[in-house]
Amino acid sequence: xxxIDCNILIVEDEALMCELLGSFFTDKGYRVSFAHSGExxxxxxxxxxxxLVLSDLRLPGMSGLELLARIQVDWPETVVIMMxxxxxxxxxxxxxxxGAEDYISKPFQLDEIxxxxxxxxxxxxxxxxxxxxxxAVRERYNFSNIIGRSKPMxxxxxxxxxxxxxxxxSALIIGSTGTGKELVARAIHYNSDRRDYPFIAINCSxxxxxxxxxxxxxxxxxxxxxxxxxxxxxxxxxxxxxVFLDEVNTISPNIQVKLxxxxxxxxxxxxxxxxxxxxxxxxxxxxxxxxxxxxxxxDFRKDLYYxxxxxxxxLPDVKDRREDIPLLVSHFLEKFAKQHxxxxxxxxxxxxxxxxxxxxxxxxxxxxxxxxxxxxxxNDEILTPTDLPENVTNPDRDxxxxxxxxxxxxxxxxxxxxLHMLKKMGGHQIKTAEALGIDRRTLYRxxxxxxxxxxxxxxxxxxxxxxxxxxx
Length: 472
Ligand SMILES: Nc1ncnc2c1ncn2[C@@H]1O[C@H](COP(=O)(O)OP(=O)(O)OP(=O)(O)O)[C@@H](O)[C@H]1O
Ligand SMILES: [Mg+2]
Fold this sequence. Notes:
Elements: E1 7-11, H1 15-27, E2 31-35, H2 38-47, E3 52-56, H3 64-74, E4 79-84, H4 89-97, E5 102-105, H5 110-140, H6 151-165, E6 171-174, H7 181-190, E7 199-203, H8 209-217, E8 218-219, E9 231-232, H9 234-237, E10 242-246, H10 253-265, E11 267-268, E12 277-278, E13 282-287, H11 291-296, H12 302-308, E14 311-314, H13 325-340, E15 346-347, H14 349-357, H15 363-377, E16 382-383, H16 390-393, H17 396-405, H18 410-424, H19 429-436, H20 440-449, H21 461-471
Parallel strand pairs: 1-2, 1-3, 3-4, 4-5, 6-13, 6-14, 7-10, 10-13, 15-16
Antiparallel strand pairs: 8-9, 11-12
Helix pairs in contact: 2-3, 6-7, 10-12, 13-15, 17-18, 18-19, 20-21
């Protein structure tokens, strides 16, 4: 920030004082103007608002305090510093109470007033920055940035709007990876009246148990090695705001008990501490596993489950809301174009067909990455299938990845892969064998080996015959 952006209006009826301050601040690079009364100051502000008003408390006509009150209402961005006579502390206190940024008592050193002015201007610019950042974040988590018009998404909007309006209701967001759980949690927070307080996200599975406990609840000095000072936990840090417990299904029984206490009593006790500290936070949790099933198995406390899951929020997989794919695609095309300052591009018909039919195991995140990948791979206005990531155009890879994630044996992986290829080839056995790089007889043998005799899934006549032939 250059000083030139910071014009100062000096309101002072003593000519000598005006001259002194004026030449001093002009030397320091500020733009300075003068008013000899409150009334004159207001006229000048109407002409051009200014960053800072340095006003004497005692003025002819309108008093300094009256001027201050008027500036607060009409020019809230302008900060006011009051110059008070030596000994008039009570007026200075009154000025501060009315919203003056600071005060300085006369007589003062010029260096002293320079520091006071600089500090006030710095606070003003920080406040402005915070305000702008907040507005940007709020804009980002506007409901309109959650894309989807399908039935499940419409239902979702209803639920999250209701949640935003209720500041205390706990919510459990249930959805597969990449469906937007964190996006939704943030949208609820930034549209609730907790928006000006922190949103703190904690990935419960990423932190080892002992650390997680201290992270969540804080700790008292000396409780364990490394606890060299008393620290507040994240729940306390979120005071007034929202705590987002991501992958809540992974928390240990010990932490489950402690969390339950916080949810029930709104009190936090630091690890090793004796004091119960009141906290006002909303809990939003997320899980990509069936938490109800985990409760049934006895690995998650039922009472905590009910506390966390006051309002369940289910996020649909992309493959169950395919009608939203074109919307999501254009949303991301526009978003990236804007980010890179480029004109918006689009996908060819064939590329769009692939995007519409892909299974999207990584959901919206995978789709977003696919769009970004295509934009990076090509310079053309129209993006084609070759610009899409390999696993989207050639989803065979997904089968392998999925099997690996399930910890499937090699044989099981082979079985799934053969089934997948059969489907892909529309049940055509010769093409399937060719695609697999084996001869027809080997394929029959494998089908028999894996007990693929129930072929109702393959309605195509040739394969039925093929399998029957192989079983005989
Ligand atoms: N409905 C949506 N509209 C627009 N963008 C979305 C939508 N859903 C998700 N996204 C985007 O997809 C990405 C993944 O979303 P997010 O991180 O919220 O998913 P998640 O469910 O928390 O995933 P994970 O289980 O892997 O943590 C983010 O960039 C997010 O902005
Ligand atoms: Mg997430």
